[in-house]
């Protein structure tokens, strides 16, 4: 996860309204605009939490993944799954340039519509070319990319509802514990089977419970990323304690300007990936839909919530998908997607707005208990 140090709330500006606008460096709506053979292209990437064949972030030392590994793959627009064993055909966290298992290629799970145009395979290839070429470009440009954001370890016990969805022993996505048997995460994190980790700020120790049933929101769209929520039912019951607690669902939607905390074990650097040794936290502010649409245009749907800090690189990143956005002690958002590379100033993170789904969450848990 790309995290900043202890954050100071942004001043209100004495009546001035905070505005989120595309940067002046060529970035367009919702991503990084770059030129290939004279044509401008727009790249967008989902925030995710994937090890992609790397060591899990519980290892004694941080591990960095190279950008010139083999085994890259993409999920083409409109293909929602159908891989071996009936699983989705990709890891859902879109680390386009990271190492991956050859039998499980990463997908491009961000919204496939770019200004109303469906992303095509050639554009996907261009995105991969751009991502893989970023190392070579680093020597000629700004070298601050490796340290764009400093991580802040979450205080022990501060996020007791945070879970990790593991594929075997590898990091896959984040999630939130709703009760002893249910976890809420992002719909694009769908797998056939999950190992659910909880109760430790590192991905060692704590509790691990298998899950084999998951329920995507029926309105989830791989093209627009609308309704990006999924419920996972644990095969066993979680043991509640001081380090394992149920999250509080919201009774209302918090307004823009509310300060919140996002947490996860995702990468702390972008475009290359470096996984932290423990759970990381950062503070962000809720952004109004009007201001967020100045960046992401029509990619921002009614079910989506934006959060960030103006003129800051603070945000969630690869490996944090499905994790919590906590505002005043309640779950207001689930990490969904954002621009690529992560950490671009004035590109807020995009979350599924949980306050609009409380009835669906409760009804689904009742139906399948």
TrEMBL record:
GO terms for molecular function: serine-type endopeptidase activity. Residues 1-32, 70-94 are annotated as: Disordered. GO terms for cellular component: epidermal lamellar body; extracellular space. It comes from the Eukaryota. Its EC number is 3.4.21.35. Residues 148-366 form the Peptidase S1 domain. It catalyses: Preferential cleavage of Arg-|-Xaa bonds in small molecule substrates. Highly selective action to release kallidin (lysyl-bradykinin) from kininogen involves hydrolysis of Met-|-Xaa or Leu-|-Xaa. GO terms for biological process: positive regulation of antibacterial peptide production; proteolysis. The keyword Disulfide bond applies. Keywords: Disulfide bond, Hydrolase, Protease, Serine protease, Zymogen. It holds the Pfam family Trypsin. SUPFAM superfamilies: Trypsin-like serine proteases. Signal peptide: none annotated. Belongs to the peptidase S1 family. Snake venom subfamily. This is tissue kallikrein. It comes from Bos indicus x Bos taurus. The gene is KLK7.
């Amino acid at each position: 996860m790309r995290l900043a140090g202890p954050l100071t709330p942004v001043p209100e500006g004495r009546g001035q309204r905070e505005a989120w606008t595309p940067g002046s460096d060529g970035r367009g709506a919702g991503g990084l605009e770059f030129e290939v053979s004279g044509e401008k292209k727009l790249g967008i990437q989902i925030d995710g939490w994937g090890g992609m064949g790397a060591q899990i972030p519980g290892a004694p030392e941080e591990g960095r993944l190279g950008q010139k590994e083999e085994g890259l793959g993409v999920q083409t627009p409109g293909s929602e799954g159908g891989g071996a064993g009936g699983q989705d055909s990709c890891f859902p966290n879109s680390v386009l340039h990271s190492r991956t298992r050859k039998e499980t290629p990463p997908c491009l799970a961000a919204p496939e519509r770019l200004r109303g145009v469906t992303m095509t395979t050639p554009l996907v290839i261009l995105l991969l070319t751009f991502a893989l070429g970023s190392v070579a470009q680093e020597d000629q440009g700004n070298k601050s990319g490796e340290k764009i954001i400093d991580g802040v370890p979450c205080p022990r016990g501060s996020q007791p509802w945070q879970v990790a969805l593991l594929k075997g022993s590898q990091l896959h996505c984040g999630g939130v514990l709703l009760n002893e048997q249910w976890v809420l995460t992002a719909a694009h994190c769908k797998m056939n089977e999950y190992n659910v980790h909880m109760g430790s700020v590192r991905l060692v120790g704590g509790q691990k419970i298998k899950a084999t049933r998951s329920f995507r929101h029926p309105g989830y769209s791989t093209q627009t990323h609308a309704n990006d929520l999924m419920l996972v039912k644990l095969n066993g019951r979680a043991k509640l304690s001081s380090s394992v607690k149920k999250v509080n669902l919201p009774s209302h939607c918090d307004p823009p300007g509310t300060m919140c905390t996002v947490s996860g074990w995702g990468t702390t650097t972008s475009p290359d990936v470096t996984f932290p040794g423990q759970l990381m936290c950062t503070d962000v502010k809720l952004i109004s839909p009007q201001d967020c649409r100045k960046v992401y245009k029509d990619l921002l749907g009614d079910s989506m919530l934006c959060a960030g800090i103006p003129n800051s690189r603070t945000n969630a990143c690869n490996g944090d998908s499905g994790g919590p956005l906590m505002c005043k002690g309640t779950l207001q958002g689930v990490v969904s997607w954002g621009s690529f590379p992560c950490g671009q100033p004035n590109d807020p993170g995009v979350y599924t707005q949980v306050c609009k789904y409380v009835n669906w969450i409760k009804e689904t848990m009742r139906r399948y208990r």
